[in-house]
Amino acid sequence: MRFPNHSWQTWIVLPFAGLLAFLFASMNGVPSAPPPYGTLSGGVAIALVLISTLAANYTSNRLLEAVFLFAGAHGAAFFLLAGIKGHEGTAGPAYYLLLASAWLLAWRCVTILSGRRATARPMSIALRLIIPAIFGAWILIIWEAVTRGAGIPFILLPPPSAIGARIANSLPILGSDVRQTIFKAVLIGYVVGNLAGFVVAILADRVPFLRRGLLPIGNMVSALPIIGVAPIMVMWFGFDWPSKAAVVIIMTFFPMLVNTVAGLAASGHMERDLMRTYASGYWPTLLKLRLPAAMPFIFNALKINSTLALIGAIVAEFFGTPVVGMGFRISTEVGRMNIDMVWAEIAVAALAGSVFYGVVALIERAVTFWHPSVRGG
Amino acid sequence: MTGNSPAVVSASKLDLTFQTNDGPVRALSNVDLTIGKGEFVSFIGPSGCGKTTLLRVIADLEKPTSGTISVNGMTPEQAREKRAYGYVFQAAALFPWRTIERNVALPLEIIGLSQAEQAERIKRTMELVNLSGFEKKYPWQLSGGMQQRASIARALAFDADLLLMDEPFGALDEIVRDHLNEQLLDLWGRTNKTICFVTHSIPEAVYLSTRIVVMSPRPGRVTDIIESTLPSKRPLDIRETPEFLAIAARVRDGLRAGHSYDD
Fold it and tell me: A167-375 adopts what CATH topology?
């Protein structure tokens, strides 16, 4: 038997599938054997793995091979998950072998796709999206399969499908939490904190005593666990969002200050001498040379701060808040053992944080297009 | 009017000592020099002879420790404030976030010229350095030679009569360098500017200059000043004529005399 497209993943799948078929067949009529999954869906899943492995190995078209592997891996995963639902905690070795086989097929599929060099632009964009999507999907599939298969207590780790259902059923609550925490505390705190850090950096650059006095203290303060001031901010500014925005301002201020000061020193001697030969004053030199040269540093701070702001606002809500907000929801729902709601808030926070970071990174690419790390060379 | 003064640069008994961690370093010692209007003066010598330092003193980027120097009849600082000179550095030092055109416009923006006048000067200087058609490119999209030409255009854009050039072609290959030397001579002939040119290449110095200032290190001082007898029209193959070789030999002797080769 000769496989034109053999790879180590598919070589492992074949004995796995054989062993699995044996386990599945011997299960019938052996009452002590644990029912691995719904009998019909288990058979379909095994058949899918086998067929797609063989089909993928005998096709000469790489793209078709990837399609076979994709269909086999995800079809098997679908039937596997459909079968285990309602039989949590009953999975035997056959279940995990099947999961491992499907996962190996998906791995092979991603390997083939990663090796492809797309010529057309839509194709390359599609590849850039599909590969991480398959990767992410398998994290969720394995999470779902293991939590259900092993019957992990809901309170320790709920399966992603339960979290998804919770998100879908609590959109109004999640929406009001996002409004309270992200659109009020995070965004306002982020804008004010970054602006303040930037302005103080310019002042420190202009006024020598600030540079010598403030910056060493700034470096020291930035090393403190600033989240510890959250209860104090609640006492100063009350329970509503201003106290959370204050925590965000304090957290984002120092990274911006330190990075901007470093950025203002980043322009080269030759460029500064050049500005001197034009008898350029402080402000023209700042605007035309030093600030543009500082932009990579400033955007670094903006990116660091986008995640810091979210953490600051959520954790600050643990210390007192009106009955809305992501941090409030997490701290109360964990007390009520509604772990799926906690995970739902975490998922929403992760999504919001990624979008926030992504927007800042996109603006960075547009502003620092000239930097070697962006233009690539 | 100071501009009518025959001496563009005039230095006497110029001394400059840098205080470094390894003790004082005497970069310039007792330099006397007068440069007239329209001259092309090269400073040549081994590294550490103070040729770049001398150029930076003229440009008010360094202050002399003692001695006097005047540029256009003023102190170097006043001359700098009046934008009396354009300076071309060893590297092009173009701002990567500006197109070539905006880089050339940089000094014009700082001086505060109108948009119309900026556009007119950009067009003229880009033509002068043969870069027309590359206005919208970014510096990192051009070759090293083109970048250096753009930086010369930037130094010419605000029409200073004095051009200070610090090894501007040092990082370029021989072929590009020959080409740019030819273009520079042509430009000098057309604009009647005074040029001070730092180099460590003997053929480059002899080919370009009306006067060659030979310097030697430790401490940096002028050991010889050679008047060129070459005609003002200089094709590249003038470098094979006996006259050219005679001047080059004299420069080489001057360099050898000033350099003790004890290290």
Answer: MetI-like fold (1.10.3720)
